[in-house]
Design a protein that fits this description.
The chain is mainly α. A two-stranded antiparallel sheet has the order 1-2. It folds into two domains: 46 residues, no CATH class; 55 residues, no CATH class. It is elongated and about 50 Å long. The structure holds zinc ion. The site of zinc ion (ZN) has 7 residues, from loops.
Length: 104
């Protein structure tokens, strides 16, 4: 489920919003650190399971791969347990792009 920042902000108490407002007015360092840490831990989470077969990934395995793709301001990351799952993902991605192109 896609969640938006706007939806999250409307659920916060006024006191919490005032704390965030104060942080932003004084350089936003706490907010920046929170966002940086959350992105880092979410990206790590992505590296735990194969994006194709959902198998758990061994972090020390030399046969696993991680693909980083997308524009520089919106990088996406996917990890795979082996070359078969990586190539399956790439073939699907290629087909999705080709279908999108014929729709336009
Ligand atoms: Zn796999």
């Amino acid at each position: 489920m896609e969640r938006r920042f706007r939806d999250l902000v409307t659920t916060l108490d006024v006191e919490e919003l005032q704390k965030i407002q104060h942080d932003i007015e004084t350089g936003g360092i706490h907010l920046k650190n929170l966002v940086d840490d959350t992105i880092r831990s979410k990206l790590k989470e992505h590296q735990k399971v194969c994006a194709t077969c959902n198998n758990d990934l061994d972090p020390y395995s030399s046969s696993s791969y991680t693909l980083i793709f997308g524009p520089s301001d919106f990088r996406k990351q996917a990890s795979f347990c082996g070359l078969d799952c990586l190539s399956f993902f790439l073939i699907n991605l290629k087909e999705m792009k080709a279908e999108k192109r014929t729709d336009e």
